[in-house]
Amino acid sequence: MKKVLSETNGALFSLPWLVAKDYGFFEAEGIDMEFVDTPVSGIVEHTQDPEKVNPVLAHTPFEEGRVSIYRA
Amino acid sequence: MVHPDSLHYYPGTLGNVPVAVNFHAGSHYTALRLLEGYLPPEKIQVVHYGSPQHRFEALMNREIEAAAVMEPYIALAEKLGCRAVCEGHYLGAENASDDMDEDTFNAINRAVANAIDLIDADKRKYLHYLIDEPRFAPLAAKWGGLTPEDFHLPRLRYTKQAPYTDEIVEDTYHWMVRWNLLNQSVCATDFVDNRLAEPVSASADD
Q: What ipTM, to 2 d.p.?
């Protein structure tokens, strides 16, 4: 089995991935899929300037190389 | 969406009205794309409120007049009397790191495509994943709860993966540059690498 770590940032965007894991579709493909939650953003400064907000947002597990795939 | 007491019924009255979004994410881009059809750019006031939980709470607490949210927050908001003044859809992306090999990427895509077949055959059966999601469930419980019957199923659109076309990349690039969301000193093709992406049209058994 090939180990793969993937970010999840909410069930809406990850629904097919969650179903694929629970119904054994990853396993059938030889993939040992493990999900890593993105961190909770918490209270943020309310700004109208996009340049004041880091565009990486909560995708730090991917940016730090701790997972190899994510969706947005 | 606007809260139940709001006097806004369509996007044209949202000029100079703060709208809660999450900057650099789908709610930000979709809000701009929807509002620019009704308002001049200088009257569009999108404000960074972060996560959908915070946007939803700000809306329900009347802290803000309007918020861009996605499911299952839309279903919960509508159940509580909020109104959608406009709706849009956007294309998601699977982003893999440089060290992801082609065989692994294609195996993942086949597994996900099989799951999409299941979901599209009976969407309501899988809504418990959205309702029970740990970041959403406490919020839903606080605001009266949500059931699979509360969803408008056509809003949920899961399609099989396909590479971005050059046309979509170019059109999106120029739109982002126009909104000062990208530096135009770099070109569109710098942002998308389709080397590993192949359309998924068959299940693993085919």
A: 0.92
